[in-house]
Amino acid sequence: DIVMTQTPLSLSVTPGQPASMSCKSSQSLVHSDGKTYLYWYLQKPGQSPQLLMYEVSSRFSGVPDRFSGSGSGTDFTLKISRVEAEDVGVYYCMQGIHPWTFGQGTKVEIK
Amino acid sequence: EVQLVESGGGLVQPGGSLRLSCAASGFTFSSYWMHWVRQAPGKGLVWVSRINSAGITTTYADSVKGRFTISRDNSKNTLYLQMNSLRAEDTAVYYCVRERATWPDIWGQGTMVTVSS
User: Fold this and answer.
1) Of A37, A48, A102, which has the smallest distance from its Cβ to B102's Cβ?
2) What is the phi/psi pair of residue A81, to 5°?
3) What is chain A's Cα-based Rg?
4) CA nearest B23: which of B3, B37, B38?
5) CB–CB of A92 and B105 under 8 A?
6) Of A48, A97, A104, the CB nearest to B107
7) Interval A18-66: pLDDT, tens
8) Are B102 and A37 in contact (CB under 8 A)?
9) How confident is the model at residue A98 (pLDDT cuts 50, 70, 90)?
10) Which end of chain A has fewer CB atoms within 10 angstroms, the N or the C?
11) How many whole angstroms separate alpha carbon A76 and alpha carbon A57?
12) What per-residue string of b and e applies to B17-54 under the rule 16 or more CB within 10 Å gives b?
């Protein structure tokens, strides 16, 4: 199975400041169809995970444009340009090559 | 509104059984692969099992293979997870998840399973 490794495990951010987190996979996530099967989810406290980004850099419907994803192959990054209070929670990266595997999560809190 | 609602969780003794259900609404259930993903208390997300849209093809994580059975009833828009020989390490919130293309796009609210004597 593909191992997903996230860093850092926690972030404390001042509102209005940027935040960045990394996700590395143990093997390339580029599929034979040319797409890269890397996704980002946010699990807010007490809630189910919600999709933020799909295929590395495409924002899911309704996701604010302060969220952006980048990367290729095995190295990926999620950035929040200006953190807001509603962004607190645990961010998970996930790879979509069966079987699905998730990173350990990056917990974002507000200073 | 697209929705997945799990039920059937609870407290069970080690070695016991439980059947989880997931009622789907707001979309054509029979067109989608469905999955179960679990999350132990304070821990991360772990994929458990999947089933294709027709209910013919199933796959399991090694940790549950031979003990859990995923199934679906497309006439009732319902997904199931039969869990036998439960262990303490199966304690988790179990999420029913819809697959869109290759990723989970819709998650249920989860149902808690606690395995303890």
Assistant:
1) A37
2) -70, -40
3) 13
4) B3
5) no
6) A48
7) 999 999 999 999 999 999 999 999 999 999 999 999 999 999 999 999 9
8) yes
9) confident
10) C
11) 10
12) ebebbbbbeeeebeebbbbbbbbeeeebbbbbbbbebe
Q: How far apart are the C-alpha atoms of B72 and B77, rounded to whole Å? A: 8
Query: In this structure, are residues B9 and B16 in contact, taking their beta carbons and an 8 Å threshold?
Result: no
Q: Which residue of A has its CA nearest to B37?
A: A100
Q: Which residue shows structure tokens 């208390």?
A: B41
Q: Which two tokens stand for residue B81?
A: 């997870």
pLDDT of residue A86: 96
Chain A contact present for B117, CB below 8 A: no
Q: Is residue A85 classed exposed, middle or buried when 0-12, 13-18 and 19+ CB atoms within 10 A define those classes?
A: exposed
Here the contacts of B38-42 (C-beta below 8 Å, separation 24 or greater) are B38/B90, B38/B92, B38/B93, B38/B94, B38/B95, B38/B113, B39/B92, B39/B93, B39/B95, B39/B110, B40/B89, B40/B91, B40/B92, B41/B91, B41/B92, B41/B93
Place of tokens 């961010």: A91
Please choose, from the candidates A107, A60, A59, A71, the residue with its C-alpha nearest in 3D space to the C-alpha of residue A87.
A107
Distance from the Cα of A54 to chain B's closest Cα (Å) equals: 8
Task: State the CB neighbour count (10 A cutoff) for residue A45.
Answer: 7
- Out of A35, A49, A60, the one facing B45 most closely (by C-beta) is A49
